Amino acid sequence: MNTSLARRLTGAAGLAAAAALILEVPLYFFYSGAPPASNVLSRLLIGVLGLGFVLAFAMAFRELVLQADPRNAWIGRFAGGAGLAYGVVTLVSSGLEAGAVIASDRPIDPTVTVDGTYILYGTIGRMLLAMFLGSVGVAILRTSVLPRWAGLLTCALALVNLAFMPSLFFGNTPAHFYAANGWGTTALMGAVFSWWLLGVAIALLRRPKTVTN
């Protein structure tokens, strides 16, 4: 695989992931009270599809870094591993939530969460996403696969995710911004991540071809 092909694959995977995740986020705000099961399952289905593309993006980005600068391949491997861990953990939490919805014939009470999922979506998810974004940002800065500003922005988003890790001390009410599964910790951070993916994907697909290896 050469650099141009790795760039196109990474950009395409990022674009697909962004499209799915951007479509998912508005579904969290359709209902002010308990959403019906159909709403929850719909957003989970879209989210699972988006996470599949996130996994593809992480693996393709690892290959892109290797092709662009073999000296920094370790950063690409770290980014790929962190992206894989984030995707898998979030998929597990989505599976637990979907299972609870399917087993219930009542609307889902937004103040009640399956045991542990608010930590997986919240603190654990924020830590893993911070590791992924941080390593991607460093890789961009060290390999110039994207402009320097993109690397700095990505590192800044990693720090923002880290800032939400202590949210587990502030309850698990989704209506609260800084709760363990609050709309700021989960929905807002998810939206920011999806728009970041969209920007990075477009930049990768539009960037002029580089010399292939």
Automatic annotation (TrEMBL):
Keywords per UniProt: Membrane, Transmembrane, Transmembrane helix
Instruction: Report which residue ranges the record marks as coiled coil.
Output: none
The answer, when asked if Aminoacyl-tRNA synthetase is one of the entry's keywords, is: no
**Keyword Amino-acid biosynthesis on this protein?**
no
Transmembrane intervals:
12-31, 43-62, 74-98, 118-142, 149-170, 182-205
The protein's name in its UniProt record = DUF4386 family protein
